[in-house]
Amino acid sequence: MMSWIRIFREAVRLEKEKEQAPREGFEVEFLPAAVEILETPVSPAGRAVALSLCALFVLVLLLCIFGRMNIEAVARGKLIPLGHIKKVESLDMAKVESILVEEGQYVEKGQELIRLDPTERTSDLEQVTQEYLQDVLISCRAEEVLKALKSGLSVRSTGIREAVKQVAFSGGILEEEILLHQVLCNRQVGQFTAQVDDYDEQIKACRAETVSARARVKKLATLLPLYLEEEKVNRQLEESRLIDHMEWLRSKETLVNTREQLAVEESTINRCTAEISALEKRKTSFCESFLSERLTELTEARARAARLRPAIVKAREREKNFILTAPVAGIVQQLQVHTIGAVVQPAVPLLTIVPKDTRLEVEAMVENKDIGFIENGQAVKVKVDSFPYTKFGMIEGTVRHISMDAEEFEDGRILFPVKVSMENQHIQVDGRPVRLSPDMSVTAEVKTGKRRVIEFFLTPFLRGVDESLKER
């Protein structure tokens, strides 16, 4: 058996070593099908392509497994000045009187931009000021009268003028009005003095009459006992028929007249005393009433002036607001008024000023699903819509500030403002730098991390599986 195997192997070896002439194509076509396949093997190119595809698939799979890609949060936004654009607006509804600047003009801080027509407000201010000044004059006059009463009825010729100088907003008082109130002050003090002097004269007259009456009473009181004794003696003599009856009657008449005269004089004393008391009361009442009137006049005038003073301050401040000035030095932009006489509404921006030499930054609105992955200091790529990034490139930036004050829109979106500082304030266009302008729309791509490439492809599948397994 072994010998047969050796013979077979030797025959196969000899057959392989035997040189065979290559068959032509037509010779192969007449061979049996199995032999024809053996004589015409498959081209190795197909096998090589298949192996290459398998190797490429394995390589891609390995790259997906071990390779990592950036995770970026994309947010729309715009360029804003670092100090924000300054808006200039009117506090009141008014007409445009003059426009002093143009779009794109550079202005200094405090420079006048627009003048508004303050005619209506000015008339109100003048009316309030006149009322205030009248109250100031009245209060100063009343105060000067009270000082005169306190100092002994001596009125200073310049008292009101000096008092007016001490009051705020009194510069508009005319000299004629001061002189008029000075005359009124003198007249009031004069009337008071005349009335008081009249009371004093009446009291003096009553006191003089009282003194005279007291003297007469004293005289009559001295004579009365004498007349009484005379009447008594004459009566006794008349009873003794030593004197005539008429003589006694005359002494009796003298006694009666003396008593009546004494009663009259005593009544005069009582009347004068009562009149003196009444005059003193009327004098005191008049003085108190006059003093009370002046104090009331002073208090009410000061109260009215105190109420009007804030109104004047407010009106003057409002009058200043009719001249709109630049809050900072910068460039005028977005000028909204171009017509003299146009009506402007309060709290409506009339123009904006971009501060001088201010840096621009990006204010991007990040969606709620991305805000949790954004941190300060993360790298950002800024694409300016005005300059396609495929041609002009992108600007590198860094997250500077993340605001937690979200803005909710009508469509239900919740966006968070994020500030991004930019490395460059210019972009190269045809070899020359072009400065970026505020309000340019941009797209900010914030690099929030990395993940495997395969996760990118598997996430939709895994999400679908997870959601489908929860459905009823």
TrEMBL record:
<comment type="similarity">
    <text>Belongs to the membrane fusion protein (MFP) (TC 8.A.1) family.</text>
</comment>
<dbReference type="InterPro" id="IPR058982">
    <property type="entry name" value="Beta-barrel_AprE"/>
</dbReference>
<dbReference type="GO" id="GO:0015031">
    <property type="term" value="P:protein transport"/>
</dbReference>
<feature type="transmembrane region" description="Helical">
    <location>
        <begin position="48"/>
        <end position="66"/>
    </location>
</feature>
<keyword id="KW-0813">Transport</keyword>
<keyword id="KW-1003">Cell membrane</keyword>
<keyword id="KW-1133">Transmembrane helix</keyword>
<dbReference type="InterPro" id="IPR010129">
    <property type="entry name" value="T1SS_HlyD"/>
</dbReference>
<keyword id="KW-0812">Transmembrane</keyword>
<dbReference type="InterPro" id="IPR050739">
    <property type="entry name" value="MFP"/>
</dbReference>
<dbReference type="Pfam" id="PF26002">
    <property type="entry name" value="Beta-barrel_AprE"/>
</dbReference>
<keyword id="KW-0997">Cell inner membrane</keyword>
<dbReference type="GO" id="GO:0005886">
    <property type="term" value="C:plasma membrane"/>
</dbReference>
<keyword id="KW-0472">Membrane</keyword>
<feature type="domain" description="AprE-like beta-barrel">
    <location>
        <begin position="360"/>
        <end position="449"/>
    </location>
</feature>
<protein>
    <submittedName>
        <fullName>Type i secretion membrane fusion protein hlyd family</fullName>
    </submittedName>
</protein>
